[in-house]
TrEMBL record:
HAMAP family: Cytidyl_kinase_type1 (MF_00238)
Enzyme kind, highest EC tier: transferase
Entry GO MF terms: kinase activity
InterPro entries for the chain: Cytidylate_kin (IPR003136), Cytidylate_kinase_dom (IPR011994), P-loop_NTPase (IPR027417)
Name of protein: Cytidylate kinase
Cytidylate kinase domain span: 6-221
UniProt cross-references to Gene3D superfamilies, sorted A to Z: P-loop containing nucleotide triphosphate hydrolases (3.40.50.300)
Length: 224
């Protein structure tokens, strides 16, 4: 069967990752969470106290950063590893969320991660979610989706997700973080967040999870 690339972009906290994961599962495709790569890079920069405005320090940090996705033997799930260490939990914490858009603005960081993402999608049969997947990483993707949702609804969903991982964060703080990330992601010079011209927009504010997954799977099947 014809294997395609599915690019899912959109604002922070729209449910891109969980939707992309379920779409990949339904089609027997590989799911790649590009945001996890930017989050792992941010954790690496934080761990090394890298000064983001110092080009030498940034270059050194990129050189010593090795990000991979591996199956965690404890739960059989594909998770993010930084220099051989499982960082899946650490990269979802607020400390990383607060810095990730600043690190993601850096041209050299994007060049490095975009190159890795392109390699990961070379064999097709992938669903990748992020901010610039349909515009920069895979401009030739056969199916592009752009997800949006009301910011309050996004924040409530995110709060629940974070709580399930053991961190209690106030709604106002989450709304602020999502808004700031959207603002920085949309206004940066290097591959800003924007809808690709040929992307199909899906507003998930009042869609249940199953419907949003089915909608994308149906679109994919029309192309296959
Ligand atoms: O997808 P997630 O919310 O985990 O992404 C975290 C951050 O990583 C985003 O707010 C954005 O700053 C950055 N990112 C990016 N380009 C991508 C994926 C994520 O700049 N393709």
């Amino acid at each position: 069967m014809n294997r395609i690339v599915i690019a899912i972009d959109g604002y922070s906290g729209c449910g891109k990752s969980s939707t992309a994961k379920a779409v990949a599962k339904a089609l027997g495709y590989t799911y790649i969470d590009s945001g996890a790569m930017y989050r792992a890079a941010t954790l690496h920069f934080l761990n090394n106290l890298t000064v983001l405005t110092n080009p030498k320090e940034v270059a050194k940090a990129i050189e010593t950063m090795h990000i991979t996705f591996q199956v965690n033997p404890d739960n059989n799930k594909q998770e993010a590893y930084l220099n051989g260490l499982n960082v899946e939990k650490e990269i979802r914490k607020m400390r990383v969320s607060e810095y990730v858009s600043e690190v993601s603005k850096i041209k050299e960081v994007r060049q490095e991660l975009v190159a890795q993402q392109k390699k990961l999608g070379k064999k097709k049969g992938v669903v990748m979610d992020g901010r610039d997947i349909g515009t920069v990483v895979f401009p030739e993707a056969e199916l592009k989706v752009f997800m949006t949702a009301d910011i309050k609804i996004r924040a409530e969903r995110r709060q629940k997700e974070i709580l399930e991982k053991g961190e209690l964060i106030g709604l106002e703080k989450i709304i602020h973080n999502l808004g700031e990330r959207d603002r920085i992601d949309s206004s940066r010079e290097e591959s800003p967040l924007r809808k690709a011209e040929d992307a199909i927009e899906i507003d998930t504010s009042y869609l249940d999870f199953e419907s949003q997954v089915n909608q994308i799977v149906s679109l994919a099947k029309e192309i296959l």
